[in-house]
Amino acid sequence: MLTAKTRLLILTLALFSLNTLANDKLSYATWNLEWLTSQPSDKFPASQRSKKDFDALNRYFVTLNSDVLAFQEVADLDALRKVIGDSYTIYLSQRSLESNQRYQFTDINQYTGVAIKHGIKAANMPDLKLDNDANSKLRFATYVVINADAQPLHLLSVHLKARCSGAYKDGRACRTLKRQSQAINHWIKQREDSGEVYVIAGDFNHNLAYGGDWMWQDLSEGTTAQLATSTTPALCKVRSRNQPDKTHQFRSLIDHVVTSKQLEVSEVKQQVYQVDDLFKYQLSDHCPMQFTLY
């Protein structure tokens, strides 16, 4: 028969274990890996990477120590495995499926996706197509539901239209970006109407944190979405395209994290590259963004 002291010890340990699980936090990152592929093309110099380049990307990924990675610009699983290893389940955009060849290019494709550490339960959902142009081959957002906590987390990995990073101008790029923002806004409203928590992470190709930004207004209209990167400083330095022997530092963020109001977000920051590595290796023109949700 257990003594009262032993029973109290067992109960204390049980409560400690439950409390630990309840407060368990997952670490996240989002990273545009710039033309990451196993079959490089002469048309895209950034796609040409040696083993040393992949090894360098892997070292940065290991430093992130992320449970979940939302990624962009990845052409195939073999290339991504060289960066993240074999400890993750990879959900690559369904645009990559054979049944979706009409949405694929013949040389290199830039897919979105999500990588989730083994042991974390997740469900793959249909991609959110962000462009209503029937002929568009781009802008499929990867959608997964992570069931690590008591309440499932709905996660989108996005890569939006480029060349409309500031004020709205009535051109093709901004019109496309506006449609994509409205598609995300509709998705957010669906989540909120269903009482679901969500996070949207990736390359928005736009400075959402600018005061009164038109795109943030479109994306968040009628919702309680919060911009977790609203005060995150832009620290990323990359190798300059025009002057390859120099670095370029971005003035504002275009990689962002949007979450539902129920979520608390902490430690939202860019992981910056070592300057020497920028000249020794083909890394990416985006720095990874890391954050923790609880």
Automatic annotation (TrEMBL):
Q: Which residues form the Endonuclease/exonuclease/phosphatase domain?
A: 29-286
Q: Which UniProt keywords apply?
A: Signal
Can you name one GO molecular function term for this protein? catalytic activity
Q: Which residues form the signal peptide?
A: 1-22
Q: What is this protein called?
A: Endonuclease/exonuclease/phosphatase domain-containing protein
Q: One Pfam annotation, family name?
A: Exo_endo_phos
Per the UniProt record, the source organism is: Vibrio galatheae
Which InterPro entries has this protein been placed in?
A: Endo/exonu/phosph_ase_sf (IPR036691), Endo/exonuclease/phosphatase (IPR005135)
